[in-house]
Amino acid sequence: MDLNFAVLFAALGITLLEMSEASAVGIALHADSGNFLPYYAVTLGVITIMIPTAIAGNFITYFPIFYVRIFSATLLLYFGLRLLKSARRSMKFQRIGFPSSKHSESGKSIVSTAYSVGVVEAFEAAIVLVALYPENYDSTVIGLIIGIIFVVLAAYVLRNQIRKVKQGSVKVTVSALLLSFSLFWYIESVVTINDIFLIPIFAGFFLLVYFLSTRNLPSKLNADPQIQ
Fold first, then answer.
1. What is the DSSP letter of 164?
2. CA distance 147 to 152
3. pTM of the full predicted structure?
4. More confident residue, 169 or 212
5. DSSP per-residue string spanning 61-130
6. How far is CA 41 from CA 45, 75, 119, 158, in A?
């Protein structure tokens, strides 16, 4: 088995990000409902997307590598920019506080919400995983599995603290990682480039994404509590 650790860590990173968000919602809904149905619903939502994605990813590996890299780089560029916007929003909420929810759900509404969250978070991860599968299928699958196992264990052990994880910092890191792969694969589709260049590319994107995510944000002391 020839593993590509850069691809493995990219798959691990996006899995940790999206699945931790799904698990946080599952924990919140579990606390609201008092039963384990939200966990099962979130899990079913994730499975609904992840299994077909893994099957499709295996077939994508048979396409010409040039077109695969252009396709993969474009997907990662799109999701990396989308995640940048989300990172800025999360960084703002880290400073001024998260908006509070003033209503609760019950019964079928909780189950449907949990399932929908599982589907949405898995789909967002799948967008990136589909781009990673053609580069190294085994590495992507291993990164995905490790990420899911880690999130499940962490969600159980840290079930009372997981909602306090600073998602903004995680999103900045993953956004920089995806944008780095996007640029790297655009370049690699036309010229040969050594993997070592991923390190300075990632460092540059990390600084850029962090700057854009925190630019002009209010400090905790100056934040208006009414800002949403």
1. G
2. 9
3. 0.68
4. 212
5. TTS-HHHHHHHHHHHHHHHHHHHHHHHHHHHHHHHH-PPPP-----THHHHHHHHHHHHHHHHHHHHHHH
6. 6, 28, 10, 20
